[in-house]
Amino acid sequence: MLACKRSLTGTMLSALRGLRSNQVVVSGRVQQRCLSTHTDGEARIRNVLKEKFPLAASLKVVDISGGCGAMYEIHIESSEFKGKRTIQQHQLVNQALKEEIQGMHGLRIFTDIPKD
């Protein structure tokens, strides 16, 4: 049993190393995976947020539902959040995405103010 656990742990570690190095092992072959591919939903949400938060220093939108558009994770850093509590920052993002949110299952929002 212990040998099985060690083997499984080794397999999981190898998989994690592959993810960190931007590689995927398919049938024993190492292939590069493309992390720059964005879904239409990600692009649409990114465009809305760029328009609503033109001072955003950083913006990242990721479809975390496997590409089906049901759930997104948003990381946005903008000076427009200065002086606002976290809940107020999230409300601004929710308001900006009011139309898009109607078709979603869930949304994770991470906001921050740029460090000077």
TrEMBL record:
GO terms for cellular component: mitochondrial matrix. InterPro entries: BolA, BolA-like_sf, Mt_Fe-S_assembly_factor. It comes from the Eukaryota. The keyword Mitochondrion applies. Keywords: Mitochondrion. Its main location: mitochondrion. It is found in: Mitochondrion. Interacts with NFU1. Belongs to the BolA/IbaG family. Acts as a mitochondrial iron-sulfur (Fe-S) cluster assembly factor that facilitates (Fe-S) cluster insertion into a subset of mitochondrial proteins. Probably acts together with NFU1. This is BolA-like protein 3. The gene is bola3.
